[in-house]
Amino acid sequence: MTTNNLVSIIIPTHNRAELLKRAIESALNQTYSKHEIIVIDDGSTDNTKEIVDSFKNMRIKYLKNESSLGGAGTRNVGIKHSSGEFIAFLDDDDIWYNNKLELQIKKIRESEEAVLCTCGLRVLYSKSKLKYFNFPKLKDVDFNSMLFNNRVGITSTALVKKAAIDEVGPFDISLPAREEYELWIRLSKIGKLVSVNKPLLDYYIHEDQKQISANINKFIKANKLIQQKYSADYKQFSSKKISQLRADNLFQYSTIAINNRNNLKALKYITKSIFADLKLNKLILFIVYLMGFRAYIQLKKIYGLKLKKGYSVNDKF
Known about the structure:
Layout: E1 3-13, H1 17-28, E2 35-41, H2 48-54, E3 60-64, H3 70-80, E4 84-89, E5 95-96, H4 100-108, E6 114-125, E7 131-134, H5 143-146, E8 159-161, H6 162-168, H7 179-190, E9 192-205, H8 216-229, H9 231-234, H10 239-259, H11 263-276, H12 280-291, H13 293-311
Parallel strand pairs: 1-2, 1-4, 2-3, 6-9
Antiparallel strand pairs: 4-8, 5-9, 6-7, 6-8
Helix pairs in contact: 1-2, 8-10, 10-11, 11-12, 12-13
C-alpha cells in the first residue's frame, strides 16, 4: 500500500558500516520529514546491523539479503518493500544535503507529467581531497536523447514516483553496470524528467577502493547490452549518429581510466574517440591527460564552477 507524500529512501550497503552511518544521518536530517529509510544489507560481514540498530529510530527498516544480489538487485528489494509515493536512492557512501528532498518534492510536483527529479552534486575524492561540481543536462531531454547520454546522473541524485517504477519495472539485474542509466531511459519514455539545478549531495570517489564505475570492462559490456536492448529504437538514427554514440562511449571510458590514474589507457581511449568524432573538447582533454590526473580534476573543477555560475542566474546557491 502506497502512502501519499511519503518518500521511501532506499540505501543498499555492503561492508561500509562507518560510511553507512553518515549516509543514514544525512537522510534523517532532511527538512522534508515525511520519509522512511530502508537499509538493505547485501551480505555484510562487518557491524552494519549494529550501526543501523544504534539509531533506535522506528523510521529505519533493516533488511538483509540471504545471498548477494549486487547493487541493482539490492535496490529492487528496497523498492519491493517501500511504501512511499516517491522513492529516493542513496548510496551508502554518499551524503545528502538537508534540503535535498524538500526541493525535489517541490520541483516534481510542479508538473503532473514529471516522473523523476534529479539534482546537481559535488564530486569528492576521499584520499586526495580534490573536488568539483557537476550538474545534470536536462535541457530538451526526451527518450531519444536519453538513448545517447545519461542526462540524469547517479542513483543518489534521483527522486522517482513509485507509480512510474511500477509501470516500467525496476532495475535490470542482467546489466553489470549502468543499470541506473537504463532505468532512466525507460522512465523518459513515459514521462518528464526534471531537475533542481543545485548541488544537493556529496558523491564520493574512493581512490583506494574498486567501485563498479571504475571497471571499464563492465561499462563496455553494459553499453553493448543496452544498445542491444534498444536496437529497434537505434535503427531510426543515421549511421553518423550511431558512430557519434560509439565515440562518446570511448570518451566515457577515457574518463574512467583517468579517474583510476591510468593515463596511458585514458590516452588510448580519447585518441580512438577523436578519430571517430573530432571535437575541440577532446583535443583539450588529450593534452590534459598528458599532464595527468590532477590536471584533469582542475579542468573539471573549472568547468563545474562555470556550470554552477550559469545555473545561479535563476537558482541561487
